[in-house]
Design brief:
Length: 714
């Protein structure tokens, strides 16, 4: 035993060394010892629903509803479990058996099916029921079994267990969430890492993308095959609807991955030029630069596709815009470094949208085609969407009409026009105060947590999102006030314990609303300013709340603040995966700041009356043979403060910021990096070697690094 303990101690010591050698040893041991037994993860899709055994009568729980016998019948009753907050929140129970002569529909799917933000008062399930109740022949029951964040394994499990209810129809709206389980991650499962590294060694990062797309197609085939098998054994009719995506209003920019053509860095030069042209609304010039970008990346990057899509939309080229929008969405799902926005890849959509006999027991609908038929264009945005894929109540009313029409036509054995069904059926009546809360949470999510990456910071545009909530019902202004007060408590860290936070909790619609509100990633200038502007514009003291919010940040300048702390970084999600680290206010997962973009942005909060000093310790990613490259530029509110010569080693620069260049309150400090050629083949070789071992890798070029960015009052 003593020898065994000694060996374990030595192994533990070897694995816990401060550098990466311990992790490297562990990864190599995994590959050697477990590789032969590691099955392809797609063969065993894991459900994100907590496991539960069948009861003594053989009935299984359906999500958060568990079978119990009550008065000689089986009732499925809500039971609190780990994921209860994600399920439909108002249904406490439903019966195993429907009433004689009734018809039953089970609606299953992800957040797009659940009606994220508008639950529980307005949902696709209620929109579907609104249509079905117009049928005078039957009494219809729609059971909402949707779950936010439902993955592929959970979908299959829910479908299987829903058949216990003997539904007449199973309606599924899903596909957005399936592909996060195959993203390219440096610490992913062995089977995934081994498969991707083989592609990486053979064809570079482009080979990884091809392997991902193949995996996405196989995963979709496997999911649909299992659902079709369930449908073949059930008397229930299965209807599968593919969710639509917001192409017009949502940006899904991802940095360019390393290529094999020695032009990766050149792409970033064109990106800078195209972005500046877009900001000036010089669309043809931006389009020309975007074409140069796409010639380099061969259509494999979302940022170049988005630039071209924006130009085409502005120039009235809708058909071409759609093609670039689709490319953007397909290319934004692959890597795990940037916060992803769930979506169905186009190559999966095309395979199943035409009822081509692949799954003969399922009837398919494509909500993208539904919306195109209704509006006359595929490039839709705020008309029906509230973010990247979630619909508004008007959207629910439209897309659930063809679903209802399929069901009613099947019952009557006739074919009807679903658009006329939309027009002759009154939409769901809404409580305006509840609707206002929903639009507030939508604006908060878009501005505060999942804001797209862009060089622009358009406060007026985001203020408009909050104004939409006010336009629904002015009572939401009290909620906005409470939100800012809660965020002001200990710089947001005391949100849930504050009186304002507790009051806010009581005013939310859905159990999922409050987690969105309480998540507080730092200074969050755009969100706070947009809300305070909205309050001020509607006769409330938004400016007073804004001043109170900013005071502790201003006071902190007395001792100096490091703007590379996550609290001050814009688009924190693109640097630190908040879903994996709740301690986003610390440096625990961010040893120093790295930029994948030509510009880095930080929030500086000042009183506008005192000069500030800035100490920047930074470095460039590579040794350069000469010093003829562009300098590192430091800007405040788009005005240059100073340009300095970047070095490949850590160097410190002292910079004075005069008070006259500062706003009172929020200021946007930017670092603009020079675009310097890097040894692309060497970078890809290093990437492949590290990825094989499961070490941290950079799939994208790092354009600049900051060790510290300390600002203090002079």
């Amino acid at each position: 035993m003593r020898t065994e303990n000694s060996s374990i101690a030595k192994l533990t010591q070897a694995l816990q060394v401060e550098d990466e050698s311990g992790l490297e040893l562990l990864r190599l041991l995994q590959l050697h010892l477990f590789g032969r037994f590691d099955r392809d993860e797609q063969d065993n899709m894991i459900s994100n629903i907590p496991k539960s055994a069948a009861d003594e009568e053989g009935f299984h729980a359906i999500g958060t509803w568990h079978p119990v016998r009550q008065n000689d019948e089986v009732i499925f009753k809500r039971k609190e479990q780990m994921d209860s907050v994600f399920w439909e929140s108002t249904c406490d129970q439903f019966r195993l058996r429907k009433k004689d002569g009734d018809k039953r529909v089970c609606l299953i799917g992800e957040s797009a099916a659940a009606g994220m933000f508008f639950t529980p008062y307005i949902t696709p399930a209620k929109a579907l029921n609104n249509y079905l109740k117009t049928d005078g022949n039957y009494s219809w029951e729609v059971i909402d079994l949707t779950r936010n964040c439902m993955n592929a394994g959970a979908l299959i499990e829910t479908c299987e267990h829903a058949l216990q209810l003997e539904p007449d129809y199973i309606v599924i709206i899903a596909g957005n969430n399936w592909f996060s389980d195959i993203m390219v991650e440096h610490n992913g499962p062995l089977s995934r890492r081994r498969k991707y590294v083989m592609s990486l060694e053979k064809n570079g990062v482009e080979g990884v993308i091809t392997a991902y797309q193949e995996s996405a197609g196989k995963l979709a085939d496997r999911v649909m095959s299992q659902i079709d098998k369930l449908a073949s054994k059930s008397p229930a009719e299965f209807i599968f609807a593919i969710p639509a995506l917001n192409y017009s209003d949502w940006v899904r920019r991802v940095p360019l991955h390393w290529l094999n053509n020695e032009k990766t860095i050149k792409w970033y030069e064109y990106y800078k030029l195209a972005s500046k042209a877009l900001d000036k609304k010089e669309y043809q010039e931006a389009f020309d630069y975007g074409k140069k970008m796409i010639e380099i990346d061969n259509g494999s990057n979302s940022a170049s596709s988005r630039i071209l899509a924006d130009c085409c939309i502005a120039l009235g080229k809708d058909k071409l815009a759609y093609e670039y929008c689709v490319s953007e969405c397909d290319n934004s799902l692959i890597f795990d470094e940037i916060t992803s926005f769930p979506a169905v890849p186009s190559y999966v959509r095309k395979k199943y949208e035409k009822n081509n006999g692949i799954c003969p027991h399922i009837r398919f609908l494509d909500f993208e085609q539904v919306l195109e038929e209704y509006f006359g264009t595929k490039v839709l945005g705020k008309e029906v969407f509230v973010d990247y894929c979630h619909l508004n109540p008007e959207g629910f009313h439209i897309v659930m009409a063809p679903v209802a029409n399929l069901i009613l036509s099947n019952e009557k054995n006739t074919r009807e026009d679903w658009i006329s069904l939309v027009k002759r059926t009154a939409p769901l009546k809404t409580n305006q105060s509840q609707l206002a809360v929903s639009y507030f949470c939508t604006a908060l999510y878009n501005t505060h947590l999942n804001r797209p990456i862009s060089d622009k910071s358009d406060v007026d545009w985001y203020s408009g999102l909050f104004q939409k909530a006010v336009d629904s019902d002015r009572s939401v202004l009290e909620i906005m006030k409470l939100y800012i007060m809660g965020r002001s408590c200990e710089k947001g860290s005391g949100f849930t314990l504050s009186k304002a936070g507790q009051k806010l909790f009581a005013l939310m619609n859905s159990p999922l609303d409050f987690p969105v509100a309480q998540e507080a990633p730092g200074a969050d200038a755009l969100t706070v300013e947009a809300i305070c502007n909205t309050l001020e514009n509607n006769g409330w003291d938004g400016n007073g709340l804004l001043n109170d919010y900013q005071k502790p940040y201003i006071q902190a300048l007395e001792n100096g603040v490091d703007l590379t702390e996550p609290a001050y970084i814009e688009w924190l999600n693109s640097h630190l995966k908040m879903s994996m680290d709740s301690e986003n206010g610390t440096r625990r997962r961010l040893p120093y700041y790295q930029s994948w973009w030509p510009r880095s942005f930080f929030t500086l909060i000042a009183d506008g009356e005192h000069d500030l000093s800035l100490d920047l310790t930074c470095r460039l990613p590579v040794e350069t043979p000469d010093q003829n490259h562009d300098p590192v530029r430091i800007l405040i509110n788009d005005q240059e403060i100073k340009s300095v010569t970047g070095q490949p080693k850590w160097t410190n620069q002292h910079i004075d910021i005069p008070a006259e260049m500062l706003n009172k309150g929020f200021n946007r400090l930017a670092i603009e990096w020079p675009i310097i050629d890097q040894n692309e083949s060497q970078r890809i070789s290093q990437l492949a070697e590290r990825y094989y071992k499961g070490l941290k890798v950079d799939f994208f070029p790092v354009l600049g690094e900051i060790h510290s960015l300390i600002v203090r009052k002079v």
